Amino acid sequence: MKTLSQPTLILSLLSLLLLLFLLAQFPPPAQAKFSRLGVHRPRSPTQARRQPDDDDVESDFVTFYYNQTLDHFNYRPESYTTFRQRYIVNVKHWGGGGATTNAPILVYFGLEGRIEHALENIGFLTENAPHFKALLLYIEHRYYGESVPFGSWEKASRNAASLGYLTSAQAMADYAAVILHVKRTHSAGNSPVIVVGGSYGGMLASWFRLKYPHIALGALASSAPILYFDGVKPGGGYYSIVSKDFKEASESCYKTIRKSWVEIERVASKRNGLSILSKKFKTCSRLRRTFDLKDYLDSLYSEAAQYDEPPDYPVGIVCSAIDGAPNDDVLGQIFAGVVAYMGDSSCYDVASDSAPPAPSASAWSWQMCSELVFPIGHDGGDDTMFPPAPFDLKSFTKICRSRFGIVPQPHWVTTFYGGHDLKLALHRFASNIIFSNGLRDPYSSGGVLENISDSIIAVSTINGSHSLDILTSMPSDPDWLINQRKTELEIIGRWLSKYYIDLVQFKLLPSS
Ligand SMILES: *[C@@H]1O[C@H](CO)[C@@H](O)[C@H](O)[C@H]1NC(C)=O
Ligand SMILES: *[C@@H]1O[C@H](CO)[C@@H](O)[C@H](O)[C@H]1NC(C)=O
Ligand SMILES: *[C@@H]1O[C@H](CO)[C@@H](O)[C@H](O)[C@H]1NC(C)=O
């Protein structure tokens, strides 16, 4: 999730999962694109692939379906309708393979995508299952992957009435029901539950600990921008970090990008300007407006920053190419950056607005148009490489009205979950949440970066990126990343030790 804005307009929300998802276009007058916030890395050819070491890790997972209640929050007859919610269990290491009772359960909260992506990418659970002797549970988010109500995506997405059950509160109630179901079916009533999530899933994990403390003992919320709402943190935060990342990688690269926006407009204003630009950037179809090119570049820089991580450090790759090209041709330099990032290709899909949005992208757009209103925009100023185009709720509302027939509720997240004066609100009330962040991740600008109490702890790394800590580890991982993960394990270990003492004291002690 992230919002892009461009001079002529507006804002476009994105999140940079895969460029593929960035392509939904909206009817005039508002041009915008929505996409998502995600843990999974873009498939830029320049980026390393993460694979679990253990090739047959998949065979340890068993898939189940739970008859989930459509609407947890009222008792009208239609609320009792159910749908099949997918969840995946791995008991290989649970209790050390023996009969040990009360061993923990690690739960991964699905986000705006298919749950199997988590099995491929999220190493935190599989790698730590032996250490905790944990049962692993992965739950798919409603309206994504196979966990779609009304029998099909076509039916579920038909209108605002059928999409109306897609809310974070419903999703968390689903997770609560599935966790309790799994505890029942595994006779694990006293097993402590640690919930883990990244990105939007991290937001859900932290909120879940606050709303369901009787179900989750603690939460690891990786790169969870829970403060990016309702003016708690500035809307320009996202892009100020993208700019910072580029400036730190190379001052001259940053300056070249900063200059390029005007240069694009200058060339476009010539006779055949759009054809010249199309040739220059080898676009697969002829450019029809400069917005598409600028938006493409905006997304590329944002994505490189969001996932700027070892061993490749994509921001460095883009900047080396920009700095390495002849410096009398700004657009040639920019194009060299595109090629370096995207790989050599016969053409670049700059304006493929014909592709319909993928179901997951549409569902995520719905969530952003209803409750998850991220006011991400270009606030302008001296230390940005983007032209000013702040978030504009009016245009955003117009887009949401025309796309879904609904009006965004930008105050709901802070009303329902909090966010303003978080420390004041939580430091005595709440406990057992880790907020982890990588400060190169633009979303860290909406993250919790300070310790709130002894057990609500911020674990940040200066050079980290989006949800890096919960991904499958790699041999090339630097010490700071290894240490971040170690800190998280130690903290969770402390929560568990305390829990087992409490369990004996409050529950298992024979009552006299
Ligand atoms: C779930 O619902 C399906 C269809 O309504 C039904 O056939 C199945 O028995 C249900 N499963 C459980 C465990 O209740
Ligand atoms: C929060 O506290 C932990 C120790 O419990 C410490 O390692 C960490 O550096 C602190 N974070 C901040 C941002 O001060
Ligand atoms: C972060 O990265 C920069 C540039 O690559 C490097 O100079 C710095 O030492 C790193 N900082 C840490 C804490 O690893």
Automatic annotation (TrEMBL):
For this UniProt record, the keywords arranged alphabetically read as follows: Glycoprotein, Hydrolase, Protease, Signal
- Alphabetical list of InterPro entries matching this protein: AB_hydrolase_fold (IPR029058), Peptidase_S28 (IPR008758), Ser_carbopepase_S28_SKS (IPR042269)
Query: One Pfam family, short name please?
Result: Peptidase_S28
Task: Report the record's Gene Ontology biological process terms.
Answer: proteolysis
Give the Gene Ontology MF terms in alphabetical order: dipeptidyl-peptidase activity; serine-type exopeptidase activity
The signal peptide here is 1-32
Q: Which domain of life is it from?
A: Eukaryota
Protein family: Belongs to the peptidase S28 family.
Q: What is this protein called?
A: Lysosomal Pro-X carboxypeptidase
Organism (species): Linum tenue
